[in-house]
């Protein structure tokens, strides 16, 4: 006697239509199309579903991938969008060095008179003075240049 299925995929007509649209149009990432194809193959409402091995061969993925997509579908409560699309990251992988406060302080420093013996500020000179300023971490001259360019400031 076969083992009962752990994760059953039952799509609504609207979900099936949207997944068919994703699969038939070439404007989506490959992984999105692959997940949509797996869900369409696993749909219990459309027809009798073959074994996961057959579904995996049809779509061109591993059996484990088919299992994980079905598991994610049931875990999300049948939300097709959550299964086929990537999750948006909550926080970036590396926090930004230049925040609004740092940007304002760098621009304010660039607006001051250059040190004695210099006619104007250069990016390298700003880099040295930013490193000496309290509250601002050391910034590279290219980062300072991007910050000034973003703020519409030109060193002349």
Folded structure, characterized:
By secondary structure, the chain is mainly alpha-helical. It has two domains: 13-84; 100-151. The protein has helices at residues 13-24, 30-42, 52-59, 63-75, 80-84, 100-111, 123-132, 141-150. The mean pLDDT is 87. It comes from bioreactor metagenome.
At a glance:
This protein is mainly α and 156 residues long. It is built from 8 helices and no strands. The longest helix is centred in the first third of the chain and has 13 residues.
- The number of strands is 0
- As residue ranges, the low-confidence spans are none
Overall SS class: mainly alpha
Shape: rod-shaped
Largest sheet: none
Number of structural domains: 2
Q: Please report the number of helical segments.
A: 8
N-C termini distance: 82 Å
* Helix content class: 40-55%
Task: Report the sheet-strand fraction.
Answer: under 5%
Mean pLDDT: 87
Order of helices and strands: HHHHHHHH
Rg for CA atoms? 28 Å
